[in-house]
Specification:
- The chain is an alpha/beta fold and 356 residues long.
- The protein has one domain: Glycosidases (TIM Barrel, Alpha-Beta Barrel), CATH 3.20.20.80.
- 40% of the residues lie in helices and 15% in strands.
- The protein has 15 helices and 9 strands.
- Strands 1-2-3-4-5-6-8-9 form an 8-stranded parallel beta barrel, surrounded by 5 helices.
- It is globular, with a radius of gyration of 20 Å.
- The protein binds ligand 9MR.
């Protein structure tokens, strides 16, 4: 009897949430190239959606005006197809990780030429193969004003419409997303909704909003997250959580006026758990993930995908940002690729069978 019940227990995140939303992860080169057996077994067992963490960004895929490098992006697509996964393209237009030649562009016409060539070439190459594209990433500041990026400075807010229209034409099948961090918070959310309404009113196709979900166990604002899901969905859009992780480390910006990297690298105060995470923090992390997933489940009809920004704690950008060389624990799997308490708390939301 015991073994029968044990067999019936849900065996993976993707199985547990299969009737709710896709469960994704971000892949680096080592995963795409299948260099680490343990990591890749975990990816295939637990996740049914993938995003390339860096290899479709313009600096990597389009390093020079007349040169594209599709090697890892192609491999990423092959990996996803082979494993029948949801493939999220990330990202067509972003102010960060731009190739050098773009920083040198001085005229609106040249920038339009870049955007047109870039989107036609990249979205065109993978047309029909990706489920979604993050078409524009991080165009709005936390206070709700437009980010003064090279795109905004030379083209005004029209660059957003231009990008969505080009993407819709180059890959008519992909769902087109606007992706940002902190866009669950009120001021940024309001500005994002205005921007999306305008875009839709002008006849452009936009299918979803990506809420990145780079949050902290010390300041998770569940009400903002729930309000954002409801308000974005009310625009007729799908919502996805595209880059989820929860930092457990102190935030250097809480200490005013700090030059983050210089002052805090190697500071025990800023890197309190270099060897292991104390049980109490492990438990808080598990509780916070549980609270979050309860909200996700409550609104599963509006949510398409929950993607974690990394596979396991060893592979997380939060070990290097905003202070280099820290040991962070933001994901559901530890450095040995084993499930953490947070994994169990999330799984238990769906697991009606007893824990044996
Ligand atoms: O995780 C990515 C890291 O490896 C890169 O160095 C960094 C470059 O800026 O980008 C990280 O991913 C970002 C994502 O593409 C967009 N949202 C914020 C993510 C964390 O910075």
């Amino acid at each position: 009897m015991q073994s029968l019940l044990a067999q019936q227990r849900l065996s993976s995140l993707k199985e547990a949430f299969k009737s709710d939303f896709f469960i994704g992860t971000a892949l680096g080169a080592e995963h795409i190239l299948e260099k680490n057996t343990k990591a890749n077994e975990l990816i295939i067992r637990e996740f049914n959606a993938i995003t390339p963490e860096n290899h479709m960004k313009s600096v990597n895929i389009h390093p020079e005006w007349n040169r594209y490098d599709f090697f890892l992006a192609d491999k990423f697509v092959e990996f996803g197809q082979k494993n029948k996964m949801y493939l999220a393209g990330h990202t067509l237009v972003w102010h960060s990780q731009l190739p050098n030649f773009v920083h040198k562009i001085k005229s609106a016409d040249s920038l339009k030429l870049f955007l047109t060539d870039h989107i036609n070439t990249v979205a065109g190459r993978y047309a029909g193969k990706l489920n979604s594209w993050d078409v524009v990433n991080e165009a709005i500041e936390d206070d709700g004003t437009f980010r003064k990026s090279i795109f905004y400075n030379l083209l005004g807010e029209d660059f957003i419409k231009m990008a969505f229209d080009l993407a819709a034409k180059a890959d008519p099948k992909a769902e087109l997303y606007y992706n940002d961090y902190n866009n669950e918070q009120p001021a940024k959310r309001k500005a994002t909704i205005e921007m999306i309404k305008k875009l839709k009113a002008s006849g452009s196709k936009i299918d979803g909003v990506g809420i990145q979900g780079h949050w902290s166990i010390n300041s998770l604002k569940l009400k903002d997250i729930e309000d954002a899901i409801v308000e974005y969905a009310a625009l007729g859009l799908r919502v996805s959580f595209t880059e989820l992780d929860l930092t457990v480390l102190p935030n250097p910006w809480d200490l005013k006026g700090a030059d983050v990297n210089q002052n805090f690298e190697n500071s025990p105060k800023m890197n309190p758990y270099p060897k292991e995470l104390p049980d109490s923090v492990q438990t808080t992390l598990a509780q916070k993930y549980e609270e979050l997933f309860k909200i996700f489940l409550k609104h599963q009809d509006k949510i398409d995908r929950i993607t974690f920004w990394g596979v396991a704690d060893n592979h997380s950008w939060l070990n290097g940002w905003p202070v280099r060389g820290r040991t962070n624990y933001p994901l559901l799997f530890d450095r040995n690729f084993e499930p953490k308490k947070a994994y169990t708390s999330v799984m238990n939301l769906k697991n009606t069978k007893p824990n044996l």
